[in-house]
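Good morning C.,

I know you're traveling, so I'll keep this short. The sequence:
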Amino acid sequence: MAEERRERLRHLRAAAVNIDGVMLNDTFSPVIHHFVVSRGGVYTAELERRVFSQRQAEAARVIAEAAGVDWPPEKVVEVYFRERAEYLERDPVRVLDGAVGLVRLLRSLGLRTVCYGGLERTHFDRALGGHPGLFDDPEYVCTDAYRPGIREIAAEVFHLPPDRVLVIDDVARVAEAARTLGMPFVGNPSAFAHGFQRESMRAAGVRHLVSSPGGIDEELLRALDAEAEAGDCWSRGGRSPQLP
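The tokens, ready to paste straight into the viewer:
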């Protein structure tokens, strides 16, 4: 079906949408939480900060430390994904309500839109293969080699300055990177009961927080476009660390 065409946005030209937590349900926080607390560790906001949107090897090292296991990263990753597979038998990966409509809306407003995340392309194909042509070429960008990866997506995929690329993610560390780069950002933090991402995003100065991808409508996108054009995407006083 042809997408409805709307008047394109004035400033923004592209959008990067995170896969796990925005397009798909959060199947990582519950497994990380269980991995740590089931082995006697404590799940904290600092742990989330050190694990989320990090390279797998680094995240594995931090998880092992928090769980109190003396394992090499390769074993942590192996056990983690085994436990995640068990979790998925009870709560499978699913496309979130409103996610497909969000991507169609972004593209109808003239934004070249891709999906990104830390897992390989096969994860994207399995989860979103039922929606061919939903995203623009290259459709999916694996960012495990350069987390969080939004700077690289803007420069190397879109060939645009950061302020012209909208980022939609569920992780506060990505928000902090977006703030440093001056990228417009919408936070869609997980509703996981033991999670800290909503509070962490507020601390980072995120102005626009939603509870589901369906909460991002045309009115919000036009407001973001105006803020980006004015160079005013971020609340004052939020944390803005230097990127590595």
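Safe travels,
E.
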